[in-house]
Amino acid sequence: MTSSPGLFPTFFLSGFECSTFHWQHRGRRDLVAETQHDRCVDEDYRVLRSLGIAVAREGIPWPLVEQDGDFDFSRLDPMMAAMNRHGIMPIWDLCHYGYPDDLDPLSEEFPERFARYCRAAARYVVGKTPGSPFFTPINEITFFSFCAGEWGWAAPYLTGKDNRFALRLSLCRAAIAGVHALRDIAPEARMVNVDPLVYVVPPKDRPDLADEARRETFEDTFVAWDILAGRLHPEWGGGPEVLDIVGVNCYSFGQMEYRERGPHQALGPRDERIEPLEELLKVVWERYRRPIVIAETSGLGEGRPAWLHDVMQESLAAMARGIDLHGVCLFPAVDMPDWHKGTWLHNGICDLVPEGDALRREPYIPYVDELRRWQKLLNRVTVLDEDPFSDPVDLEEVRAAAQQLQLQPDRDWS
User: Fold this and answer.
1) What does the CA dihedral 89, 62, 124, 54 come to, rounded to 10 degrees?
2) CATH number belonging to the domain at 12-405, selected among 3.30.43.10, 3.40.50.300, 3.30.70.20, 3.20.20.80
3) Residue 414 scores a pLDDT above 70
4) Residue 99: alpha-carbon gap to chain centroid
5) Is there a contact between 288 and 335 (Cβ–Cβ < 8 Å)?
6) pLDDT per residue as tens digits for the range 175-222
7) In whole angstroms, what is the distance from residue 171 CA to residue 175 CA?
8) InterPro entries from the xrefs (predicted)?
């Protein structure tokens, strides 16, 4: 019997890039196919099993499974079979930047169509894979709104802040409708609502932009979560049970210098203006008092081990101070391409090495070694046993290890 049961069977999670956006100048993208995760799903889940990871974020590609008003989810069958063979529990992403071609995301029809799709997806997947049902209704509402609503990178290719705000509201309404639809089918389903955790500062030579930077950090970042939690627009049906689990995405480029036009500029690793991750997690915890999971995090290239080291230090410092953190997701499990350039980012647990028309999975050993080190420090499994779901993570055990390590938050990020 665990004294403080966590949400998941393992503290470390992973996931696979599954974007299906309609991308500028390139048309419909399918990142599952581009990374050959669809062809290598058995191998990909076998790798996670060997690493002691029993939870993976996995996508259901809405624009590819809904055609002419009907649904065909058969492409998920090989994934679910591999999950069952290797003991991997999915967190299903239902809208990872993609929606059907015939649908306007600003229309009144959008939430209704999304809810219908969510019901169909839940009917198809619930009860067919290990563990309890977990979903992310709409991934990164805030970033999606920037990407497709202000910067014009992806469909619907809108630009300007007003369009970003309008798209964000529509996505929030759809996400709330989706949560209720999912729970119509699976009342026990849990939701992981994912968005980037960001910190924005003014340029050193533009102190007049301090208010704008602060608003983006402490107001704009939280609008979508606030709507899902029912703090804003409660008439749409949000509430704490809709927000449920707060999934924070943590990357080095999430700490930025404010720009009046276009994306902000990422801070360098030794910038004195960087805010410790522990402090940002504290802001989220005090605002919502809901379970938190780091839903995505990774470094780049040779910086991956150092990045994991820093994130774990900050995460455990947060847990030692009472923040209800349930896990850290090393995302992605296999490498992914830069959306703009198409070059490999080298941010996965495994790099992808072209061999003819195949992409060979090659674990980045220093990153794996750093994961192993933390698993041992926290007394976590390093390989899944026959039944990884017999006992959830004992968070009290993790907190005790964190307190014993006496880790302190700092601004010195790799």
Assistant:
1) 0
2) 3.20.20.80
3) no
4) 18
5) no
6) 999 999 999 999 999 999 999 999 999 999 999 999 999 999 999 999
7) 6
8) GH
